[in-house]
Amino acid sequence: MLNQIQCLMTSTSTLLRVREPMIEYQDYLLIFCLFSALFICICTTKRKGDGRKLNLPPSPLSLPLIGHFHHLLSLAGLYSSLHRVAVQYGPLVYLRLGSSTLVLVSSASVAAQICKAQDVYFACRPKFSYADKILYGEFSFINAPYGEYWRFLKKLCVNELLGARQVDRSKSIRSQEILKFLKRVIGYAERSEVIDVRVEMVKLTNNVLCRMAMSTSTEMGMGMDQAEEMRDILKQSFELAGKLYVGEMLGPFKRLILWIYGTKVSNLTKRFDQLLEKILKDHEHESESDGDHVVKDLMDIMLDVQREEKAKVPITRSNIKAFFTDLIIAGTDSSSQAMEWVIAELINHPLVLRKVREEIKLVVGDTRLVKESDIPSLPYLQAVVKETLRLHPSGVFTTRLCRQNCKVEGFDISENTPVAINLYTIMRDPNEWKNPNEFRPERFLDLGGVYEEDINKEIRSNSKGQNLNFIPFGAGRRGCPGTLLAFTLLNYVIAASIQCFDWKVDSGEVNMQPGRGISLAMAHPLKCRPVVHFNPFKSECN
To answer: Where are the domains of the chain?
Structure first.
């Protein structure tokens, strides 16, 4: 299924990554297990049916044993494989992967049926076999089954952190963190240092999210050692998860994976649990010290729910840790990745960069720094951000699980069938977009060149699935609840970054090759030499 796709495209590349200095002996053992046990488990597994004669979606010719796996292997990456399948076989394709099945959705109209018309039938996500082994996976909000627990957490998240009122209320936090970011980059510029753009964006977004959710950041409640440890744990978690995904292909031999990597999983989980437990205890201590005078943040509210003996939806400490892990990982990774892509596109399109700067100067002038409140008056900037997200979505696809037998486009979709909504292909569909592979921000402006809709209104429309040819963060019940915050932060950071700096690369042009995994990150980190274009702190220095 979905995880089986990942294992060949993500996990194998992780194991054999050129940048790794050496491959550990466990990795050789894993590769051996993969190719031996996969063959055995597929040969010995019988397909089961429910007795119905099904009208299944179109399907390519398959091979014995492996089914359609060969269609998903590409040196270019998973995004390329799924895109090729969609172009060759249509917007709704039935795939057999060994003994498992998958439905691939690759058009805006079919996606609308999944995420809008029949959203309730597809309100779950496929369950990963090792979810209970990685960083509170069994308590995850992102992958939780559709039900009372998931609805409670989403409502809490939107009402206390990600809703329009809460996003507006936290704008001073974003302003403060962007000022810190600008000062840091100006320091690099004065020393003529080359920086990894995504690393800096990760620090910025992580600080913003942590301060919004739990009133601390890597520079406040967490010491630098703790911050570095958190980044190291998250990095190792992503790499280890890629290897554990291989277990999805081993059938009855799945326990071999835990035998190979069990110690690493245990040690990593223990380290992360100790770190989060310390953050929680520090937060509780500060809240008790401040008493009733402190304004409660999301962590305070969840701790209060945990203490309620008769809470409608009981929350454990592990639930809290899992929830904040989801927020930090999902928000930090997707936002920082998008910021990197936007800067890369602007470097490679100097005329577009010039138009963005001219727009900022027209609205802001040349004596002050752009503010978040200026963003609705910067339509071309917003169009640049949207066009980048269209071409480079944070994820290749988003997943759903059919909860009951239903029909889509007249075809039968059986209960418990995983569905992959092919975001990359939908947002490059020539039937929806003219010259879909070109970077043309103007396509998001109306014919008169005037951007009339309020940004919040448009974001709400897209997030509810009204315009499913542009769904970088998904749509429907399982769409990203942080869409509004993501757009707000993205536009603000890019505006400030372009107003204040020229971003120079030694080669003169950025390599735009995507990576091979399900997260469509840049294959080669964007390393730039920032040159100060406008210093908003110049008056402070005089």
So the answer is: 2-541
